[in-house]
Amino acid sequence: MQIVLKDFTKTFDGNTVIDRMNLTVEDGEMLALLGPSGCGKSTTLFAVCGIHRVNGGQILFGDRDVSNLPSQQRNVGVVFQNYALYPHMSVFENIAFPLTVRKDSKADVDRAVRDIAELTHISELLERRPGQLSGGQQQRVALARALVRKPDVLLLDEPLANLDAKLRLEMRSEIRRIQLETGITAILVTHDQVEAMSMCERIAIMKGGKIIQIDTPKDMYSNPRTSFVAGFLGNPPISFLKGRAEAGGFVLDDGSLRLPLPVASQIPDGTDLTVGIRPEHFGRAGDVPISGKVIFAETQGRENLYDVALPDGSVLRSVQPAQDDVRAGDSVSWKLESAAALVFAEDGRRL
Amino acid sequence: MRTRSYMVGLAFMSPALVVLIGFFFLPVVLTAVFAFTNMSTSTGISGGSYVVTGNLLTALKENGVPVEIADALSKASFVVDPEGIAKARDAGTDPAFLAEIEQQLGGRTFTDERLFERELKTLQHRPRSIRDLKLAVDQFELSILNSRFTSESAARQAIATFLPSAPADTVDQIVEASYTGWTWTTANFKQLFSTSDTWRIVLNTVFYVAVTLSFTVFVGLFLAVTTFYLPAGAASAFSMLWLLPRITPIVLYAVMWKWFTWEGGFLYTAADALGLPAFNYMKGSVPTAWTIVIMVNGFIGAAFAMILFSSALKAIPVQQLWASEVDGASRWQQIRYIILPHLRWPILFVTSYQTLSLLSSYQEIWLTTNGGPGRTTTVWALESFNTALNSYTGNLQYGLGAAMALILVIVGVSLSIIYLRLFRFDELLGRPKIEF
Amino acid sequence: MTRNYSNWPIILVLLLISAPIIVMYAFLLVDTVTTSPPGSAIPNGFTLSHWRFLIDPTATGDVWGPTLTTILFTASIVLIVLGVSSTAGYALSRLNMPFRRFFLGGILVMHAFPLVTLIIGVFLVLQFVGLYNTLTGVVLVKAGLMLPFGIWIMKGFYDTVPWEIEMAGVQDGASRFTVWRRLILPQVRPGLFALALFAAIDAWGEYMLPRILAPSADFEVLSIYLNTVSDPDSTTYNFNLFKSVGLFYTLPILALYAIFRDRLMNIFGGGTKG
């Protein structure tokens, strides 16, 4: 089922939180709403599932305008951050609840619950209470309950935030597997870019109630539209150099570094620019040599992470295969791939 | 669309609304309304009627109604009119006789029974027996004295047929005075503001509230702080003990105090054995009566204060206390500089809350000293209650009692609104997150 | 806490100020099974004769009738208070409605406001609707007067249930009523229980309302019965007999209090903490 938000507007007590937002989620697609807290991603989710009212615009499920329908009539499955399992009911009763309220026959309920339990791998937990389950198991129950009545849309609100690191990895692929197997249209709300990139076909990145960019994870990473997007995606994060345009290239403010940039040829000299360099594009290979001093070195096992201070004080980050030759305090002379540098105007726009 | 979700909310709220309107809103309105009436047992609660009694006539004569009019009202008169004829026919009087009466005497009025009788005896079809004649005479009798008129117009009409010549303002005066139901008046408030009794009761109330409140807060504080330092077992024993007065039914609690303080009771027996003055402490002297009233209420309040203070104390991070001990603070300094500052809000809360409930409480006083000896321990709420609902003379003055209660209601509502602001209760009002 | 201080002085002072309570309640227990010589408070003999009122109606009149009435009285009040508070508390905590702010403010004012002041008005209301001198009238008034407290307490308990449970319920297609009954109500069961206890203790001890609002009715609750027994002018007047009746009357409360002390503490303090 395709979901369309048309000029969606939401206000709280006269404050417009989201102003005329447009978004289309294709049938069977899993889309991430990614952004820092307070960007309006949860508000959008709550509007789609019918907890918040729409103050302007429309929400369409397929051809059906659901803007003024309460949750009960929208047929949306939701997984909440804290799972919101009903503590006084067994796992079976939890999953069966959506079916019993619409008065399905006992046999139908039983079959549906067992099918979905098999899909989510919780068949042996059906008699337990939520309090007796681990976080990952609770998550699976919440998913099963959201999916059992075959909703048109699945909404996931920070589903992995309450899990520890190992479970998070496991559930990431599990949720994706279940979504693919059911072929359901899904929206994932998260503040974690790794989650968004690894689980979703497309990412809508939000800031201050607006969608900044919608793209596939790969395009979004390599081709960010603003410095905010570039900074938000990638771990370890991108580093920025501030300087100005000069003779078709970029120079640091103190003139100590010069990068040839193809885009810079159309920019008048002296324009303030910001250049973003991802850590994997600064290291032993590249075309522009840069000297600096390692101020921070950290090993992550397979890779090492370095912060290198340039003479003017700006810092470049580098990630390299683990070696044992450089320590904090050493002076290094490494190289930068100028073709991969991202150039942004002063207002954050990509050039 | 919005209305649908409003309907759900109102449906859930409606049982409470019905009860609260019935037992809060209406009583407040009625208290306010009846404060401006002279309603009492003798006027009744529903509307009254118009009755001219002998006593009333005597009073009217003193108030300038001409003697002859008053006297005339007290006499019966005999009017030959269609109504009288009809009544006589129903009573079984000979129709021929009646026809004759109507023809001969129709429209005449007799103020003397014998005169009327004599006239009737002259008629041809008069009945043989004196008894039948008397019966016929009775049917024409019209008397205002002691007959009950349900409306003002009926009363006026009766007086007018009786005394066609009476001046209009005299009739007004009589009708007004003959009304037995309640009427609108501001006399209750005038009376309250002019009697010296009022001010004595106000002083009693202020004294009672102030002293009981201090007792409550200090004892409550003492209990909370000491039990805080005691080992858990002893602390829980004392807090259980002090909760007893709060959960014990009021009747039993009151009588236990009577047993404790009356002749033959515990204190009496003990004082007697020790050679101290022994008497009924609850009723025997003003200072002892006040002491007991304050303790009876103070013990209940202290339990309430202790619970609130204790739970506030438990919220103090224990590291703060350890730190202060390491810093060399004595226990007194610890109480003074760490514990009391933490209790500021609970103390303010208990003070506000108890002020209101003490202002209006009278159950405990009613069941113990009942305001005595004399009226020395009578407080405003008790006086209002006794005036309206518990008078020994049998005449309950609802109007005056309501006026007294209204003043308490106004004080109470104003104080509660001030407290709402003070404790910022409106911040507790979160917006419902589900908007449908 | 460190043990640098001796506790004995504190305990002594506490015992001293608690003396009236200790004496009154100790003698309440002791006097019901002992006799003492005139002019002394020290018992000198054991007897069960003060309890004869339980089987002998000539002692103080039948006690079981009033007991049954009191149970009925208390149970009705508890049911009404629970029923109305649990719906209204939910509405105030969770539902959209017009004048929501006003309702909540009103409940709070009524909660803080001393209700006995309204007794004259309540008396007049009962007169007008014809419930004066009836058990129904007294039950309704008593339940009504407890409602602001009950609603406030229940709202507090509902506030602690996570919103997500509620949201999950409506997402699962349940109506708000179903959500309330099947999902939320089970979560506030401890609150309902505490409120029921509190209401039961309060109703069981009620004296003034039956006395004033049904002075000549054909039913009698134990508080009234007890007060009649304790009338010094009555022929059966006897402090020890009275104490036995009083203890009989209070035992259920003491039992509830002893068993469920923690839950009650919570509500005694919690109702006013906001």
UniProtKB/TrEMBL annotation, chain A:
GO annotation, cellular component aspect: ATP-binding cassette (ABC) transporter complex, substrate-binding subunit-containing
Localization: Cell inner membrane
InterPro entries: AAA+_ATPase, ABC_transporter-like_ATP-bd, ABC_transporter-like_CS, ABC_transpr_MalK-like, ABC_transpr_MalK/UgpC-like, Mo/tungstate-bd_C_term_dom, NA-bd_OB-fold, OB_MalK-like
Biological process (GO), any one: carbohydrate transport
Keywords: ATP-binding, Cell inner membrane, Cell membrane, Membrane, Nucleotide-binding, Transport
Membrane topology: Peripheral membrane protein
SMART domains in the record: AAA
Residue ranges of domain ABC transporter in the record: 3-233
GO molecular function, one term: ABC-type transporter activity
Broad class of the protein's primary localization: membrane
Pfam families assigned to the protein according to its UniProt record, in alphabetical order: ABC_tran, OB_MalK
CDD domains registered for this protein in UniProt: ABC_MalK_N (cd03301)
Protein family according to the UniProt entry: Belongs to the ABC transporter superfamily.
Protein name: ABC transporter
Automatic annotation (TrEMBL), chain C:
Limits of the ABC transmembrane type-1 domain: 67-260
Keywords, sorted A to Z: Cell membrane, Membrane, Sugar transport, Transmembrane, Transmembrane helix, Transport
One BP annotation, GO: maltodextrin transmembrane transport
Cellular component GO terms, alphabetical: plasma membrane
Pfam families xrefs: BPD_transp_1 (PF00528)
SUPFAM superfamilies in the record: MetI-like
Subcellular location: Cell membrane
A GO molecular function held by the record: ABC-type maltose transporter activity
Membrane topology: Multi-pass membrane protein
Transmembrane spans: 7-28, 71-92, 104-129, 135-154, 241-260
Top-level taxon of origin: Bacteria
Family: Belongs to the binding-protein-dependent transport system permease family. MalFG subfamily.
Function: Part of the ABC transporter complex MalEFGK involved in maltose/maltodextrin import. Probably responsible for the translocation of the substrate across the membrane.
Protein name: Maltose/maltodextrin transport system permease protein MalG
Biological source species: Pseudorhizobium pelagicum
